[in-house]
Specification:
The complex is a heterodimer of chains A (264) and B (440). The relative contact order of chain A is 0.16. Chain A is an alpha/beta fold and 264 residues long. Helices cover 44% and strands 17% of the residues of chain A. Chain A is globular, with a radius of gyration of 17 Å. In chain A, helix 1 packs parallel to helix 12 (247-263), helix 4 (130-138) runs antiparallel to helix 8 and helix 5 (140-151) runs antiparallel to helix 7. Chain A has an eight-stranded mixed β-sheet with strand order 1-2-4-3-5-6-7-8, with helices on both faces. Chain B folds into two domains: 9-289, 3-Layer(aba) Sandwich (Aspartate Aminotransferase, domain 2); 292-439, Aspartate Aminotransferase, domain 1 (Alpha-Beta Complex). Chain B has 18 helices and twelve strands. Chain B has helices spanning 9-15, 42-49, 64-77, 88-99, 114-126, 139-145, 168-178, 209-213, 231-234, 238-241, 252-256, 260-273, 279-289, 292-311, 330-336, 352-362, 392-397, 414-439, and strands at residues 81-85, 105-109, 130-134, 150-156, 182-185, 203-207, 221-225, 316-320, 344-349, 367-368, 378-380, 404-408. Chain B has a seven-stranded mixed β-sheet, with helices on both faces. In chain B, helix 5 (114-126) links the parallel strand 2 (105-109) and strand 3 (130-134). In chain B, helix 4 crosses helix 12. The chains are: A alpha/beta (264), B alpha/beta (440).
Chain lengths: 264, 440
């Protein structure tokens, strides 16, 4: 669906059903250079099983208009505005990689907006090699290529796809190469308030981490899980792009956690 | 490396799409000879049917062995996804029928495989889909032929049997200006010879039966989604951008982006048309693909030797191959096919139609049959077989003359192929001499 956020048209995937703010909302936040399509195999289940789903493209990404947020702090404020525009008081927030940092900022700005928090393939800080940022400034396509090479685990590199016949590396190249990757990476590199944000979270938390993650190493994610006393799932045979690489395993871990939070 | 993989083509051809499976460690891709797949629960079944998760439901829609082949070909071509079909023709029909509805229009090269021409000219017309045929490298003609209701520009990488190489960058520029995708039948240009998608194609179709299989033991086709066409910006494809009722109003472009077409084909066309590839054929075709790059090197080396050899034979009246300067698309061929433009060649023999028939009948090593791309050398007289349904005017437009012999050069020892052709050329010469005597 399209939603005006601060006067800018924003695209949100709703999992194939019209969004209903009266249902428990699940908010999916994509990582650097990605968009709502990374959540294609999680959002539909929630939408068809009693939840309202919002999976926005951050400003300036894919189907959303506007300029990209230049800092994680800005993206947190944008999420506050987005939830306001959608008429959502609180949501189960799910963030992949950079999306989790934005969720942390949302939690600092509006703690009551977080009904539960799930981090996928992420950490409290995501340092980025300056060479990658420089490359992204010159060519998002080249930087996307580097990230896809590091970001996917061995199964993806061997062309083994969870969706029959599909090749996620080419899909990632197409989406990330056309999005404001340099801005995303710079905002990750600049963000240092993650640890502080973690210490203020009181909502139920869940971490889904990858054993072959080269972008946000497993050990960094485990530190977050420990600090939050979070539910933990480690998918050993996959890389950083978990929602795309292991959609079914991610969905199982997500739905078990979110359904259990809803039932308490 | 391709747009879909960081491995090199030789490695992709051997490995992509499969890692030894966990239960038994089978090194070869297993043949999943099954129609259907047990669901863990009713909820899981419902979830699969509603595209909430990936997986197999019924082998008409997808199958694990076929999926390996699909993923391997997608990786070789650099596509975002691929769907295998029962044959190359069913791949074409599936592509046409997925993108076109009654009242729509296709712009096609006039120089294409005879059965494809018949499909476009007659069969699709019955469904209200019209086709305009143009000389595909004539930029002005192509530009003018695209209408408001045009849904694709279609051509073959290397036209069959005229061997005109399509100027993909030019065709793509023109199509892009109109918001129309470029669909390429790249059967004569298997992956590795030409970077079809990077050169401007949006959808690539192959008859996998041909060079990819190489053994002539299995029929199959594939549609590769380049993932590089913006169906929304085009404005011509509500089928992909607007709600699709049979799947609860799913919007393929919005939900799947670069995979939109492949997902639509899987969800709608494989379900409705049912032209699926059998797992056994997928296994056989995978065996061929494993050696594709090695075989292509030998195919091309032999084709180049044959071209040189035929040019100096007295009984040969003309020779055509894209790598020859006399071929009108030679400049394009050099640009798009740096290592050689395939192993198809055509030539004329003395004695016209009768001479051609004598030549083919005298061959012993080469096989006279309606196939190309086999590892063995194959020959055919298109005017009396594959293109026999075309009118004389359409044959001329397709670049076919009565004396044309089409050769798919195999990977046998080149001396043996030349020896076989040498004997057959003598038979043609005898016929020509008799005809000359009779007319003098």
């Amino acid at each position: 669906m399209k939603l005006m956020v601060n006067g800018v048209e924003t695209h949100l995937a709703t999992g194939g059903k019209e969004f209903d703010a009266s249902l428990p909302t699940v908010l999916f936040l994509h990582g650097s250079g990605l968009d709502h399509r990374g959540w294609a195999l999680q959002t539909r289940w929630f939408a068809y099983n009693g939840f309202g789903v919002l999976a926005p493209d951050f400003p300036g990404h894919s189907l959303s208009q506007g300029e990209p947020c230049s800092t994680i702090e800005q993206s947190g404020q944008w999420l506050v505005d987005l939830l306001g525009a959608a008429g959502v008081e609180h949501a189960h927030v799910v963030g992949h990689s950079q999306g989790f940092l934005s969720a942390l900022e949302l939690s600092r700005l509006k703690p009551g907006a977080i009904k539960s928090l799930t981090g996928i393939g992420t950490a409290a800080a995501i340092p980025v090699n300056p060479m990658l940022i420089d490359t992204a400034k010159k060519s998002a396509v080249k930087a996307a290529e580097m990230m896809l090479q590091w970001g996917f685990g061995e199964q993806m590199h061997m062309g083994v796809s969870p969706t029959p016949g599909m090749q996620p590396i080419a899909v990632g190249r197409q989406i990330m190469g056309a999005n404001p990757l340099a801005s995303d990476l710079q905002s990750c590199a600049d963000y240092s308030a993650g640890d502080d944000a973690l210490s203020h979270i009181s909502a139920p938390t869940n971490m889904i981490l990858a054993g072959q993650d080269k972008m946000t190493p497993l050990k960094a994610g485990l530190v977050v899980a420990e600090k939050l006393n979070a539910e933990l799932t480690v998918l050993k045979e996959f890389g950083h792009m978990l929602p795309i690489e292991a959609p079914k395993q991610v969905l199982v871990a997500l739905r078990e956690f979110i359904v259990s939070v809803e039932s308490t | 490396m391709s747009r879909s993989s960081f491995y090199h083509p030789d490695t992709i051809a051997l490995h992509s799409g499969y890692m030894p499976e966990s239960d038994h460690g089978s090194r070869a891709v297993p043949i999943y000879q099954t129609t259907s797949y047990v669901f863990d629960s009713v909820a899981e079944a419902s979830s699969l049917f509603n595209v909430e998760q990936g997986g197999h439901i019924y082998s008409r829609i997808s199958n694990p062995t076929v999926a390996v082949l699909e993923q391997r070909i997608a990786a070789l071509e650099g596509g975002s996804g691929a769907i295998c079909t029962a044959s190359g023709m069913s791949a074409l029909f599936t592509t046409f029928i997925t993108l076109c509805s009654a009242g729509d229009h296709i712009v096609s090269s006039g120089q294409i495989y005879g059965s494809t021409a018949t499909l476009l000219r007659h069969t699709l017309k019955r469904f209200g889909i019209e086709t305009s045929f143009v000389s595909i490298n004539d930029a002005a003609a192509l530009d003018q032929a695209i209408q408001e209701n045009t849904k694709m520009v279609f051509c073959e990488s290397i036209g069959n049997p005229g061997l005109e190489v399509a100027d993909l960058p030019q065709i793509s520029d023109i199509a892009k200006k109109h918001g129309v995708p470029v669909v390429i039948d790249a059967t004569f240009a298997p992956p590795g010879l030409c970077k079809t998608i990077e050169s401007g194609a949006n959808v690539v179709v192959h008859s996998v039966t041909k060079w990819m299989g190489g053994h002539g033991a299995a029929v199959g086709g594939v549609i590769v989604d380049g993932g590089n066409f913006d169906w929304q910006a085009s404005g011509r494809f509500p089928e992909l951008t607007e709600p699709y009722e049979p799947f609860h109003g799913i919007k393929f472009w919005e939900e799947f982006g670069p995979n939109a077409l492949a997902m639509k084909i899987r969800a709608e066309s494989m379900r409705d048309l049912g032209a699926c590839m059998s797992p056994n054929n997928a296994f056989l075709l995978l065996q061929g693909i494993e050696t594709l790059n090695m075989r292509m090197k030998q195919h091309i080396a032999n084709a180049q030797s044959m071209v040189e050899w035929l040019q100096v034979q007295d009984s040969v009246t003309w020779v055509n191959h894209p790598d020859l300067e006399s071929n009108p698309s030679n400049t394009v061929a050099k640009s798009l096919f740096p290592n050689g433009a395939g192993s198809m060649l055509c030539f004329g023999v003395v004695g016209g139609r009768a001479g051609g028939a004598a030549f083919i009948n005298a061959l012993q090593l080469a096989s006279n049959l309606a196939n190309v791309g086999d590892s063995r050398t194959l020959v055919l007289h298109p005017g009396s077989t594959t293109h026999s349904r075309l009118s004389p005017e359409a044959m001329l437009a397709a670049g076919i003359s009565e004396d044309l012999i089409r050769v798919s050069v195999g990977i046998e020892n080149i001396k043996d192929i030349q020896s076989d052709f040498s004997k057959a050329l003598r038979a043609a010469q005898k016929v020509a001499d008799k005809l000359a005597e009779a007319s003098s």
